[in-house]
């Protein structure tokens, strides 16, 4: 049975949610599931904006059939060729033999790679700034390469001022009937997942996001329709500001995330004591995470939120504790920049984790490593506690700047 919602009188949401999938891209935990958004425009001509993942194909086709109500489908607009959005292209071609696919040159290269379809006479290739008239509705296309694949484009509907934004402005999380941002408590229930989605999926491509934001800034946008998460029909400035901050690698909050690895509890003890000292100094919204038991995607979400990070790790096989090393490699892969860092190392006979963490951080842009680096030899001593006091003071002073 169909399950749709009207975006406007002429535009309908025809997507759905998957609450069974455990890992997005078989990598990122999604305990709240994920939504796959698709949209259908009814006018003199009809157009579907992107398809959905194969997990909800049945729902998708029932939604299309109900919304078309016997009409033919004229166009499929392919803004993004990732399989969670393009999985139903071949089936749509079979069901709607008059349908044409609208995409750019890179789109069609990828379609041939995924499907090997004979598309002779069934394609419309668009370039930057090209338009497609559906009647009253008119779609203009703007390329957004590497946000977050090279073929990505967005479609702007000029009459109702709707931006179909591909994977930009998306979020993890299934939609529970309320698909619009003004029907939700976004800060409470969605912001963490939106930030985690951005940081892990798009985070590496901050410069490209900045380019896209500048390109789209000249458009009069009233509604943003992403391929995951809520549809935005008000407070667009809030969302655009988040994307501007994240893509410039500027923190949302002046606060501290303490990310620690601990084998037997001594490094964890130092992390807890530091958190208490920072709280006593007036620091709010402190995050404290064990990198061994917290998924790295959640850690990445925190570093996009927090201005200051403390990394605490024991030495392991003359190197950095593996879970911390994995986290630092993710930071490098995602192009993390512009953070103030405190370091805590531990080692019973040869602590070298601090030096090696600093060497990795030196390879990232705009990383300011504070002194002192706190060194524990097995457990906190009076000497290392004094270092911890000094680090707490340096963090508090930096936050006050």
Automatic annotation (TrEMBL):
* Domain Flavodoxin-like, chain residue ranges per copy: 256-396
Q: Which CDD domains does the UniProt entry name for this protein?
A: flavodiiron_proteins_MBL-fold
Q: Which PANTHER family does the record associate with it? A: ANAEROBIC NITRIC OXIDE REDUCTASE FLAVORUBREDOXIN
Q: Which SMART domains match?
A: Lactamase_B
The UniProt entry, under InterPro entries, shows: Flavodoxin/NO_synth, Flavodoxin_CS, Flavoprotein-like_sf, Metallo-B-lactamas, ODP_dom, RibonucZ/Hydroxyglut_hydro, Rubredoxin-O_OxRdtase
What name is this protein filed under?
A: FprA family A-type flavoprotein
Q: Which family does it belong to?
A: In the N-terminal section; belongs to the zinc metallo-hydrolase group 3 family.
Per the database entry, which stretches of residues form a coiled coil? none
SUPFAM superfamilies from the UniProt entry: Flavoproteins, Metallo-hydrolase/oxidoreductase
Superkingdom, taxonomy of origin = Bacteria
Q: What molecular function terms (GO) are annotated for this protein?
A: electron transfer activity; FMN binding; metal ion binding; oxidoreductase activity, acting on NAD(P)H
**Cross-referenced PROSITE patterns, in alphabetical order?**
FLAVODOXIN (PS00201), FLAVODOXIN_LIKE (PS50902)
